[in-house]
Amino acid sequence: MNETLFSQIQRLLERTYAQVGINLEDCIIDRARSVHLSRLAGASARELNEIARTFLRHAGDQLYVGIYYSRWLIDQLERHDPRSGLSDSNIRSLIVFVEELNHALHAALLQFKNGQRRIASEEFARDLELQAQVDTYLVLLLFVAFFRKTQRVSRTDRRWLRFHLFTRQCPDAFRDQNLRGRYLETCELAASYTQYLDTLNGVRRLDEIRKFRSLDYSAKKAHIFALMERTG
To answer: N or C: which end of the chain has fewer CB within 10 A?
Structure first.
């Protein structure tokens, strides 16, 4: 049985960090459910991406996860399957796809298992967003490397990935001040941290990102600022 793009990326992230113990594809919801949950999430949530969303809720020790991908996004990825190559026609769709899966795997399941229950807090949301942008960059690097004969990613490749993942973001477009600040800060932090990761070999990078994931958001920020001072 052929693996789906979703299951392949989940397996890659689990191999990097830890097993979550469930098939996250079982958490995918339809548009009607997404619309209902978006209404419950409040006014500011209406500004978030409508083509893909991750919903988290906990009651007692139970965690509920919903991952929504629009039909348009799935059609784009089926028409331009990134497993056949990355290009301007599918890079943005793949970024959105990976980030939402990453939210569910990291913030929702791994961090919840580690004892964090404040999933409605702003710090938790920023931690999820920062981690997702870092991991998505690394996933994109693997996709690019796979299609290079030398298995090496050039500076041009990295600039192209960074443009689509970081430079093209428009946090100022959010009317909600909190959302604007969240995406502006996490984008800047992720862009800086991934520049540092680019200087490491594979073994050191794996060790570094595993340590990074174990930190809370404040500690992640402090770690990145320290790296910036050291390398600046």
So the answer is: N
pLDDT of residue 159 exceeding 70: yes
Provide the pLDDT confidence category of residue 146 given band limits of 50, 70 and 90.
confident
| Max Cα-Cα span within the chain | 51
Task: Identify the pLDDT of residue 227.
Answer: 95
DSSP notation for 54-112: EEEEEETTEEEEEEEE-HHHHHHHHHT-GGG---TTTHHHHHHHHHHHHHIIIIIIIHH
> What residue type is assigned to position 210 of the chain?
R
β-pair partners for 53: 68
**How deeply is 35 buried, as exposed, middle or buried, from its count of CB atoms within 10 A (0-12, 13-18, 19+)?**
exposed
Beta carbons within 8 Å of 127's beta carbon, 6+ residues apart: 107, 111, 216, 217, 220
Angle at which helices 202-213 and 177-197 cross, to 10°? 150
Strand partners, 64: 57
